[in-house]
Amino acid sequence: MIVGKGQKGFLVLALVNVVNLAGFGVYYLAKLNYEFMIYMAVVLAAMVVVGLTMKRVNYSAGVLWGLTVWAVMHMAGGAVYLGEIRLYELILLPLSDSLPIFRYDQLVHIWGFGVTTVVCYELIAGKISGGSGGFGFWLVIAMAGLGIGAVNEIMEFFVTLIVPESGVGDYINTSLDMIADIIGAIIAVVCLSRRTALKEEEL
Questions:
Q1: How confident is the model at residue 5 (pLDDT cuts 50, 70, 90)?
Q2: Residue 12: partners with Cβ closer than 8 Å, 6 or more residues away
Q3: What mean pLDDT, rounded, does the chain reach?
Q4: How crowded is the C-beta side of 203, counted as CA atoms within 13 Å?
Q5: Distance separating alpha carbons of residues 21 and 63, to the nearest angstrom
Q6: Confidence at residue 2, expressed as pLDDT on a 0 to 100 scale
Q7: 93-101 — which CB contacts under 8 Å span 24+ positions?
């Protein structure tokens, strides 16, 4: 998410991230929205980590753009309103009368932790001879992505302690978030395994 390797595409990527954080940063500061100011700090920290590790990890352009889209989706979720409904609370597809699904919030989780799972693959695969394996390998990749998802939920718990009026949600929201994380991780692993299998067939 930060300029690297001297490629023009990374400059565009960095510009998008700077505009995203600066634009929404001004909005959240003006609103004194401490919840999303904390999230912005987390996004900025993630950008720094990716930037500092780009020389050692061969992040694909797809992963970097995926993380960038996730950051934009996340920041927009707390700032954009459709009428009186905040984007994060918006029901995209009413699938249940008793549960708040399918919400924009869950879409962000599916996308975000799907991309995070791909990041875990790019971190791990390069360290393993052959780059991939069977079911056990893909299970580890999926669990790595879900582990980061669990850390995210722990972070949101601390946000509720620091900002009691936050919009994090209750136990049902947390559970639905984790289910969305699992869906994202599974989609990522299925796509990665199919792509790896096709590459091996070409060799």
A1: very low
A2: none
A3: 87
A4: 7
A5: 19
A6: 43
A7: 99/172, 99/176, 100/172, 100/173, 100/176, 101/176
